[in-house]
Specification:
8 helices, globular, Rossmann fold, alpha/beta, 6-stranded parallel beta sheet
């Protein structure tokens, strides 16, 4: 059963619906909810306006934030109850490799190695993916001001980086969801179909496309 997973992570590019799904699952499962809290990064709004100038400061703030989150993970009792998060610590390097130049990346990697981030591995990762038009629509709908500055080129590169990251991912059970074809928050049938799919997972790689359920 889905509720047998002690630690579930929801991942995917900006605007795909990670936080909404994580919140809904945590409420239904009675799980502790762990959120990324990107809004607490004071450099993020400036980064979306001027990525080159603010890439390093933005990424280092996220790295230090991740270090605190890892400490919180270790203090939490992941062996009792369940936890659902809208991020995984591993993805910090994904963003760094995409946004930093070579010298900045070397500095980032040195700091990363010094911090020795080693978060617990999730039992299940749910990877939400969607095309650019869907991401744009959802970003506009949630109305966070600084996110409206995100460029299409950045969103496309980010989506491609996630695709590459999860292509070879095998640290946990992985469920890839076509988030364009479903409304997991407002459509009860879509949400239940997802729960049924999760219930059937034990390990390995799996795919969920709701359009295939309605044939």
């Amino acid at each position: 059963m889905a509720r047998d997973f002690r630690y579930i992570v929801i991942e995917g590019p900006i605007g795909v619906g990670k936080t909404s799904l994580a919140t809904k699952l945590a409420l239904d499962f009675g799980s502790d909810l762990l959120l990324e809290k990107a809004e607490e990064n004071p450099f993020l709004a400036s980064f979306y306006k001027n990525p080159r100038q603010y890439a390093l400061s933005t990424q280092l703030h996220f790295l230090l934030q991740r270090a605190q989150q890892v400490q919180d993970f270790r203090q939490a009792d992941l062996f009792h109850g369940s936890h659902i998060a809208d991020f995984m610590v591993d993805k910090d390097r994904l963003f760094a490799e995409m946004t930093l130049n070579n010298d900045e990346l070397k500095l980032y990697q040195q700091i990363y190695a010094h911090l020795t981030l080693d978060a617990p591995r999730p039992d299940l990762v749910i990877y939400l993916q969607a095309p650019l038009d869907t991401l744009r629509e959802r970003i506009a709908h949630r109305g966070i001001g600084y996110e409206q500055q995100i460029r299409d080129e950045y969103l496309l590169r980010l989506s491609e980086s996630y695709t590459r990251f999860f292509h070879d991912y095998d640290d946990s059970a992985l469920l890839t969801v076509n988030a364009q074809s479903v409304d997991l928050i407002n459509n009860a049938d879509d949400y239940q179909a997802l729960l049924d799919k999760i219930d059937a997972i034990h390990s390995g790689r799996h795919y969920f496309n709701q359009s295939s359920f309605s044939l």
